User: Fold this.
Amino acid sequence: MKVNPKIDELLNSFIDGELPPRQQTEVQRLVAHDPAIAGRLRQLKKCRLLLTSLPSAHAPAVLSRNIIAALERKTLLGEPPSSIEQLAGERQLFVRKLLAAAAIIALVAVLSVVIYNIVAPPTTPAPPAIATRHLPPLPEPAIALPTTRPAQFAGRLELGTDSFIQVDASVSKAIAENDSVDCTSLTRQPDRAEYILACSRKGLASLLADLETVWDKLDSATLLVYTDTFGRQIAVNAVTADQILQIAGQDSLERSIRVAKDFAALNNIVELLPGKDILTAIDAAAPDLITTTKIPKPTLTGWSKTIKKPTSQLKTDAKVSLAITVVADK
Amino acid sequence: MAETNNANIDDAVLVDQCRLGYPAAMERLVLKYQDRLYNVIRKICTNPDDAAELTQETFVKVLENIDKFQARSSFYTWLFRIAVNLTISYCQRRAKFSTSSLSADDDEHDHHAKQQLQQFLNDDSSPDPAAIAQNRELCRLALDALMGLDDAHRTIIVLRDIEGMTYAQIARVLNIELGTVRSRLSRARSSLRQVMETMCNEGQSKNR
Assistant:
C-alpha cells in the first residue's frame, strides 16, 4: 500500500487523540468508507500497541540514595557539577592557561636574549677608560706591524732617556749578545734608534736581564701592547721589566691584554697620586711614619733584580714580537 | 500552556521546598519521577548502567539548578527536557565510537520470535497488552526495532508511546513546534513499521 504522509499524520493524531472533535469525526468517516485507510490505521494501532505494551524498566533501588549522597557530597565539598558542558569549559580553560604559559615563556626568552645582548661584554675588549684617560695622545706607530702576527704577543717598548748614546749602546749590545733574539730591522737616527725584534719568551727574558743597567738611565718607559683591533693599543706607562715579562708571558693574547690594562691602571694611579711630593716631605721629616704605608712606586725604580735568566718555566715555543725604540729626551 | 493537574500542583510545592533546602522534598521528587525517567532513558539508550547514571546526573543537575526553574513550564517537562538532552548527547558521543546492530543472534530462537512479530503485525485481531508484555521475545524485537531508528525518531516515539506525553508536552520537552511533533512522530512510526517488516523479511529469507 502506498503511504500518504498527510494521511499518516492524520491517522497518527487520530489514534493519539490529538485531533479536534470535528477532524476526529472526519477521520472516522474516512476510515469507514476507505478499506485501505482502515488497514493503515490498523497497522499503526498494532505498532503503537506493541510499544505501549512493553514492560517498564524500574530504576535501581539505590538510585535515590545515590542522588542524595551525590548532592550532599557536592554541597559539602563544594565540587562543581561535572556536567558535559562544564567539562568542556574546563578543557577550554586548561587550553587557555597552557597558551598563556607558553606565551609568557616565549616572552621571557625573547627578553632574556635582548638583556643578554645588552649586558654581555663584547667579543672585542675595548680599552678601559682608566688606562687611556690620563695618557697623552699616542704617537703614530713608527713601525708597521708585522704582516704575520706573532703567536701571542706583539708590542713596542719606548724608552726615553737623556743618555741616548749610552742607552742605545747598551740595548744594541744586549741584542747582539743574545743569540735567541733576532733583530729583523734596525733604524738609527741621531736622536732615535729603533730595533724590531723577534724572539721567544725565553729570549725576551734573557734580553731584559741583560738590560739591567739601562733602566737606571731612563726617564720614561712605555710598553704598547697591540690588540686584535687594528690601531688599538694598550699603553703601559712607567713599565718595569718585570711587568713586561709578566705581560708577554701570558698564555693568550687576551690574557696579555688584560694584564697590560691592569698594570696601566696601576701605574697611572701611582703616577697621579697627589701625595707623591707630600710623601717625600713626610719621609724627610719622619722617616718611620710612612715606612709601612708608603706605596712603592713601580716606575723607574731601577733594576730590581727580579728578572732572572730564563728558566724552564717559560714557554719557549711562544713567539714574541717586540719593537724597542730608544728616544733622546729634548 | 501550563498544566494545572494535581500532580503539578504537588510538584510546585515540592519545588518550593527544595528551593528552601528541604532534603525530604528532594527525595520525594526523586522517588516520584525516578522510575518514569529511568524507563524513558533506558528505552532511548538501552544500556541499564548508562541509564542509571544518566538518571542520577539528571536529578543532580535539576536539584542543583532548582533555583533557576522559573515555572514557565511544568517541572515535569523541565525535568524530562534536561534528561532527554543529556541522553541524546550521550547517544551521539557513543555513536562515534561504536556501531549497533539490530540483532546479534540469528539462531532458531530468534527466527521463532520474528515469526511471532510478523504474525502480530499481520493479524487483524487486537491482542491483550498484558499478553504482549509477557512475550519477552516479541518485546526484545520491538526494542531492537526501536534501536534501529535514529535518535530523533526513537526519542519522540519513546516520549509518546512509552512515557505517554501529549503532543504539547513533547513540543516543550524537545523545544519544537506542535506541527513538527505531528510530522516527526508520523515519520518515526512509519520508519519503525518498516524496520520491523525488514526484520521479519530477513527471518523469512534465512529460513528458506
